[in-house]
Design brief:
The protein is an alpha+beta fold and 315 residues long. The chain is built from eight helices and 13 strands. The protein binds (3R)-3-hydroxy-3-methyl-5-(phosphonooxy)pentanoic acid.
Length: 315
């Protein structure tokens, strides 16, 4: 027996962050979060289940991977539902440069879940598939949709769900990514979140700010209020990193270049431009801006990337 299928899923950038878990095993988040999908960057994944395979295998950009922990969580759950015990061969390719420093686990796990469900002919809602994908990588549950996606923290086992909040046509954003470093994260986000939860003196303050930020960002998106979204996204990003920095030992993702870019964005804002920054678990800065300023801001941000040196751009 041979079952096979392919799927694509986009990567997503958090506008208000998931940082901290209330359930470690199932990646249940302590904070609700909102993301914006970057539709042109993502993972194309092919999955084959075959009775002749003796183990699961995972190839990322043609390179055999040793660590399949996240992928197995998704595969095992889907095999249980489909009542099959076939091993799988996963071939995943990112359509953005691998050395771009963009987290590929969100798009990769989402594409894997979609392709595997198709191959095993499992008929589940997108919502349910997104929750299965969450078992492999938390933020991947937001990669099932285009545009703005909200992922509510919930309180129980089955009520932490990601759903579309608004389409990109309703409130479009342009993006520009500063690739400060393409190196692997020195600490996994799971370890970093746990360390923050257990040791940061500011963790409970972060949780209450995250709750307020989620509500503010949600309202800003629904009312297409760029200024408010810009303010809350930046504040939320800074608070998440400040909380991580206050863990013991400190978790510092930012590099000198990260801070230079952030200061340059503040400068552009003082000049009246509609642009804001955010930073996920790494040193790379993602700028979002009003598409009406596309040409001017892409130009300015590109010049900035070149002037810093060692910083690549992706837009
Ligand atoms: O889902 P993970 O384990 O890759 O963690 C994502 C953490 C952040 O990117 C920093 C925030 C987020 O909401 O995506």
């Amino acid at each position: 027996m041979k079952l096979s299928a392919e799927a694509f899923a986009p990567t997503n950038i958090a506008l208000t962050k998931y940082w901290g878990k209330r359930g470690l095993e199932n990646n249940l988040p302590a904070t609700s979060s909102i993301s914006y999908s970057l539709d042109k960057f993502g993972s194309q994944t092919k999955v084959v289940f075959d009775a002749s395979f003796e183990e699961d295998a995972f190839f990322l950009n043609d390179k055999k991977q040793i660590d399949l922990k996240k992928q197995k969580r998704v595969l095992n759950e889907l095999r249980k539902i489909a009542r099959v015990d076939l091993f799988a061969r996963i071939e995943s390719k990112n359509n953005f440069p691998t050395n771009a420093g963009l987290a590929s686990s969100a798009s990769g796990l989402a594409a894997l879940t979609l392709a595997s469900a198709k191959a095993l002919e499992i008929d589940l809602s997108l919502e349910r598939l997104s929750s299965i994908s969450r078992l492999g990588s938390g933020s991947s549950c937001r990669s099932f949709y285009s545009g703005y996606v909200e992922w509510v923290a919930g309180e129980k086992e089955d009520d932490s769900i990601a759903t579309p909040l608004a389409t990109k046509n309703e409130f479009p954003l342009s993006s520009f990514i500063f690739v400060v470093s393409a190196d692997e994260k020195h600490k996994s986000s799971t370890d970093a979140m746990e360390s923050t939860r257990l040791t940061s003196p500011y963790y409970s303050a972060w949780l209450s700010q995250a709750k307020k930020d989620f509500a503010l960002a949600r309202r800003a998106i629904l009312t297409k209020d760029f200024e408010s979204l810009s303010r809350v996204a930046q504040h939320n990003c800074a608070a998440m990193h400040a909380c991580a920095m206050s863990a013991f030992p400190p978790i510092v993702y930012w590099k000198t270049e990260t801070i230079r870019i952030i200061n340059a964005v503040f400068h552009l804002q003082q000049e009246g431009h509609r642009v804001f920054f955010t930073v996920d678990a790494g040193p790379n800065v993602v700028c979002f801006f009003d598409p009406s300023e596309e040409q001017f801001l892409t130009d300015r941000l590109s010049k900035l990337a070149r002037s810093i040196g060692g910083v690549n751009e992706l837009c």
